[in-house]
Amino acid sequence: RWLQLGRRAALAAGALGAGSGAALYLSTPAFATELTLHSSHLPWSHNGWFSSLDAASVRRGYFVFKQVCAACHSMKFIAYRHLVGVCLTEEEAKAEAAEIQVQDGPDETGQMFERPGKLSDFFPNPYPNVEAAKAANGGAAPPDLSFIVAARHGGADYLFHLLTGYMDPPAGRLVGEGLYYNPYFPGGAIAMAQALYNEIIEYEDGTPATQSQLAKDVATFLTFTSEMEHDDRKRIALKVLPWTLVLVACSWFAKRHVFTYLKSRKIAYKNRPPRKFYT
């Protein structure tokens, strides 16, 4: 019986593996037709099991987003309070929020009014609606960047290569009007022009603002916005893991204690003496 169950499990595993391989094979031509250069894996400092996000890089990335990316991209799910204790102090976050004007109301007279932003306010949208965003960007609305790292295959690796991968199209490759060649973008033609250049901004901490540094910092900041529980999750794991190991050890000991007599028992045939019949 156990042999039959093992054979069935092996057949099921083989069928699952064959089906997965076939699905991967069938999906490969779709990626090949896009002529997309896949991003390589980069040694991000926060990728380790027990590594946290680089707070200094997150802070620099916020200012890159504010001075470069925010002109076209929104982050409608991120509020200024989310930055407190991560890359800004509470006073700095309040000052950043106060720089924007938020429509609020109605007041006592039923009119809407403008007020300075507060910590509870979300990042402003550069366009009033999607149609305005399309009209200002050649028909392509810039995506919201709140969870862009989680929404793109490759995550931060993809964003870094996309931001630094602009180049002239190869010979024979035609790019439409208003589009730019980037081999990391599906299809190779992207409506967003190159946004990052060397020394386009100046970092307050004196870090050289090279193109790669700018891309690294803004990708780290977008990693934080996409996964704000990143550090908390790893911190909780450090507290839970030792107890998990203890529970595993206790479970193994209990299993040995319960099933030892079943594994060690022996079945012996006892020859009974013939029964005597009295007449």
From TrEMBL:
Molecular function per GO: electron transfer activity; heme binding; metal ion binding
Main location: mitochondrion
Keyword annotations: Electron transport, Heme, Iron, Membrane, Metal-binding, Mitochondrion, Mitochondrion inner membrane, Respiratory chain, Transmembrane, Transmembrane helix, Transport
Record text on cofactor binding: Binds 1 heme c group covalently per subunit.
Keyword Heme found: yes
Cofactor: heme c
Record-annotated Cytochrome c domain positions: 56-208
Subcellular locations according to the entry: Mitochondrion inner membrane
Gene Ontology annotations for the cellular component aspect, listed alphabetically: mitochondrial inner membrane
GO terms classed as biological process: mitochondrial electron transport, ubiquinol to cytochrome c
Tagged with keyword Chaperone: no
Source organism, top-level taxon: Eukaryota
Binding site for heme c: C69, C72, H73, M192
Family to which the UniProt record says this protein belongs: Belongs to the cytochrome c family.
The protein, known as: Cytochrome c domain-containing protein
Originating organism: Macrostomum lignano
Lineage, opening ranks: Eukaryota, Metazoa, Spiralia, Lophotrochozoa, Platyhelminthes
